[in-house]
Amino acid sequence: MKPILLLLLCATALIIPSLSGATSSYPTVPGTVDTSDFSITGEDKTLIPNRREVYGDGRIFDISHRYTTDMPAAESDEGIGQFLWLTKSMKNGSLGNMSEMKLPTHTGTHVDAPGHFFDHYYDAGFDVDTLDLEVLNGPGLLVDVPRDKNITAEVMKSLNIPKGVRRVLFRTLNTDRRLMFKKEFDASYVGFMRDGAKWLVENTDIKLVGIDYLSVAAYDDLSPAHLEFLEGREIILVESLKLDDIQPGIYSIHCLPLRLLGAEGSPIRCILIK
Ligand SMILES: *[C@@H]1O[C@H](CO)[C@@H](O)[C@H](O)[C@H]1NC(C)=O
Ligand SMILES: *[C@@H]1O[C@H](CO)[C@@H](O)[C@H](O)[C@H]1NC(C)=O
Ligand SMILES: *[C@@H]1O[C@H](CO)[C@@H](O)[C@H](O)[C@H]1NC(C)=O
User: Mean pLDDT across the chain, nearest whole number?
Assistant: First the structure.
């Protein structure tokens, strides 16, 4: 980073009001570094970063999860573990601090490309760099699904999502159970059953499917439900969204994956704008 930009950033940090890092969305995440780890310790206690879930008095909601060592990883009890390493540090004489990161592409809030479950799509290059930004950005619905079932055809029917709706974020029991805030992977999460996925593909105009745990597909139908969604290469799956404390309804959805050439998944930053 250019020194001038660094200076600007420091100056901005100085004028940001001091706020506690704990929020209603991240009250007790184990392993979440609280502000004291990030603030510059020493005399100057005013240098405390402002961590937010909601911006502009409720106009913008951040629906991506913060990456932490203790966020869940598929089929593991250990969480994702260390994913950041400070490889160059100012305390050790480097010009700047510089970290490296390493993490599976399907970690935290992330997107699936068709190559995730179709080998011939993978080989043909249907990676995250080919995903349609028009699908990933635009008006859409946040809906609550019944808490006592996985998402079957019957459940899909009962939601009565109008034709023409192209983007839907499905909030489920996973949010109530705060599964994304638990380190241990929980295979009993709610997701789509094969017939629910098939019903969506055949009877709706939905092209962006979002859900609140690591997979859109219920564990018992992991492969079949993904296959239904991804076969047509039109539907984009966004997983592990943070949908706590947001009113159901219509929002402008904005999701941007990284342009990882050859990757069948990517971390994605998603926000909702009222
Ligand atoms: C820079 O690296 C040092 C460790 O050498 C660390 O204590 C400090 O927090 C880092 N600063 C930033 C801005 O990350
Ligand atoms: C700085 O250097 C010391 C000694 O080589 C090493 O033990 C330490 O891990 C380094 N710290 C960082 C943040 O690079
Ligand atoms: C959803 O399916 C999973 C298995 O994939 C099961 O463990 C869980 O109990 C089901 N959830 C509900 C609410 O029926």
Answer: 88
